[in-house]
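Problem 12. The chain below contains 313 residues. Write out its predicted structure in token notation.
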Amino acid sequence: MDTARLAARTRRAPGPVFALILGVCAGACRADPDAIVLGATTSTYDSGLLEHLISRFNDDHPGVRVRTVIAGSGEALELGRTGDVDLLLVHAPDAEARFIAAGHAPRLRPVMYNSFVIVGPPGDPARIREAESPAEAFATIARDGHRFVSRGDSSGTHYREVALWREAGVTMRGAWYVESGQGQATTLHVANERTAYALTDGATLTVLSDVLELEALVADHPALRNVYSLLEPRAALRAGVAAVLADWFLSETGRRAIDEFRVRGGDEPLFIPWTFEDAAPPDGAPALEGDSLSIADSGRGSAARGSPAHHVG
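Solution.
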């Protein structure tokens, strides 16, 4: 395994939950062959949602052990392809569609959503608050060379960012554009230190709001809808037991646990459980019908969502 391609982040959660460095994942999983290995995105980890959900899952299934590998969605999908994880929780619709089309998973099942936001310094030197769309905001940032910090890590957030730059007709080159190669929390800290703009999921921004001066400047736009889905890789070593966790995420108990997740007693949930009555995927994302996206549906994604990053954190 290419250990340099995944940021080292280790954290012990309540109960038998661990965030593992990719370089030790294989050995750890062989040492505990009955544990489910969940590949999850950095935003679910940095926000605290993952600990919350796995703790609730363990309340219902105390005999099922879960280990987590935290990575950007692109890197997590690669781990699914190679059989290093048994279940994926990711938020990169086009990459997910390609994963399914290649035969690496039979379907995806959307489980929750929230929104991306474009953040920046309170003074908003680029004046993007006035932008009519996220793409217009990006074009404005680039036109005058205002600093922008990208995750640059093949994550779902990075894919969405690249799609917005493409829509804006901007080539991301120059001293104004910086790639952190790190997860969401670190990227926001870098943007804060450099009084720069960035794209982030709203949940991580909320969690870090007490230590950042950055403000949400562009939000509540259809192009910023952020859908998280489950995929069960065909190469999984523990597919049967992983299905128990997947089904729990989508059960009434799992949906309730998602809806109840708050930070510092906030009134609004940071993630919204997926319901087909009132939620739809972002414009250009794969169409989701029933409770899954099948291989036959997987070609419907937008080709402009972005390509793998040059730097992976």
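Discussion. Confidence is low (pLDDT under 50) at residues 1-30, 278-313. Students who got a different answer should revisit the alignment rule from Section 12.3.
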